[in-house]
Amino acid sequence: MILGFNARKSFEQAVRAFSPDLYRFAWWLCRDRFVAEDLVQEAFARAWKSWGNLKDAEATKSWLITIVRREHARLYERKQFDFVDTELEDLQIAAEHAPIELFEMENLLDSLPLTLREPLVLQALGGFSCAEIADMLDTTEGAVMTRLTRARQTLRGALTAQPARRAES
Length: 169
Hints:
Layout: H1 5-30, H2 33-50, H3 60-78, H4 99-111, H5 114-124, H6 130-137, H7 141-168
């Protein structure tokens, strides 16, 4: 679509006026400077293609923000994840901790009741959402969130009590 001089001028004004806001929004979405810049650039490229179809000039900013949000979503549609069929127990998790700390953490996790340990491991190691965990455990999403909170509180309490126990021994 070939746009006239007035359309080009209004587009350039929109770019100057809304670039900072679009960048801030894009950065808030992805927390990466370079990705945010790419999102804004892609949003303006898409906006330019449809600039002649814009009916309400007052809605330009919200329209551009919608384009940025959709471009951000497209990043994840195109992203290909590598999946490996491995049991959670067999995963080698990189850590900067001493082996004794890993052993203690494993013992703390093992000391949790299964009803608390399962959702925590599924979320922390499996990366599953509360809704997915609820489906897997055949329970409600609220119950999963409660169990996750209790598991974290229990671990936090045990971890804060550990330095006192080490000092006594």
